[in-house]
Amino acid sequence: MTVKDLDLNIKYSAIKNARFFFKVQSALPKNFPVTDDMVAPVLGPGTSLQAELEKGSLFLVDHGILSGIQTNVINGKPQFSAAPMTLLYQCSGSGPLLPLAIQLKQTPGPDNPIFLPSDDKWDWLLAKTWVRNAEFSVHEAVTHLLHAHLLPEVFALATLRHLPHCHPLFKLLIPHIRYTLHINTLARELLIAPGQVVDRVLVLSSFPQSTGLGIGGFSELIKRNMEQLSYSVLCLPEDIRARDVADIPGYYYRDDGMQIWGAIKSFVSEIVSIYYPSDVSVREDQELQAWFDACVWMPNLPPTMPLPPPTSKGQVRPEGFIATLPPVNATCDVIIALWMLSKEPGDRRPLGHYPDEHFTEDAPRRSMAAFQIQLVQISRDIGERNRSLALPYIYLDPPLIENSVSI
């Protein structure tokens, strides 16, 4: 490819899908000192930054999450990453979003210029390319891996561990977690493991030969997003309101997404209302409560502790406790292993079941029959006791005990 083959007019319409895209409210961030003179060639006469702010026509894409991120070495050469801030302008309230200014690092200064459409075309093209690179990294690590793979995995595991097949929520959820664990396990083995695709390649993707952030940057980016993640971010209507982008014309991610969201909400609400007519029925469903706890309370079973045990009393603070909990990746790996090791095999044989009939004599057969009758009575006693327990203890119920160490 030659220089003349390059398209100097990189399109920015897709950037409206970014989770870091929002309307500027009262003023630009102090660390993004764009002036009227800088943007006058694009805004034209008779207006200013303040006037456009008041009209609601200025938007910001802030990739500050990438600031200082660890980068990779590819083919013996160190890779680099930017943490750009991009100011966008919507002309006439209904036109396309146009990039007004780009700053590639979060701290302003003489070595961090603000790039403008009026600059040399190659300066401007390179600045826009850095923004797209940042969006690529965030999309692959946060939007793709974390939000589309790892977070659904939490619900998949909770469903399989705590909801029996006859449970209405299991029936509702199981079609939507099909292959989730399988594809995530393959990703860990073939894409994001040390020395695999992400480490060898990309700046943060899951395609061969290209990664600039590597496993270290990949993991750090996920960790940073988890620290600022809230439930509302995962709910499209709340996310749209929080970013104040409900009234942008031509925002098809929002328009189509809200229609899909509405259809899903209606369907799920109807199904749930059949089985849960009130809040009381939700609270009284112990399996549902266990499912929810498994999703939100990781300290129930931490697989590792990053800090040493305390050597005195009265010194632990909330932040110290949180710092002692295991990282997300270690937790996910262990949960997957535990699920696989506790998965019921298709040919499970409960304690006391002897279909192979190794004994042919009457005496041992009578002993086996008596043993099975005793196990049945034990199971009945356990069932009767569990009826009075808030959280039934079923782990030693004979039908749930394997006849051998088979998994």
From TrEMBL:
SUPFAM superfamilies, A to Z: Lipoxigenase (SSF48484)
Record has Amino-acid biosynthesis as a keyword: no
Entry superkingdom: Eukaryota
Pfam families the UniProt entry points to: Lipoxygenase
Cofactor annotation: Fe cation
Keyword ATP-binding part of the UniProt annotation: no
Location of the Lipoxygenase domain: 1-407
InterPro entries, alphabetized: LipOase, LipOase_C, LipOase_C_sf, LipOase_CS, LipOase_Fe_BS
Keyword field: Dioxygenase, Iron, Metal-binding, Oxidoreductase
BP-aspect Gene Ontology terms: lipid oxidation
GO MF, one example: metal ion binding
Family named by the database record: Belongs to the lipoxygenase family.
Protein name, entry field: Arachidonate 15-lipoxygenase type II
Species annotation: Cricetulus griseus (Chinese hamster)
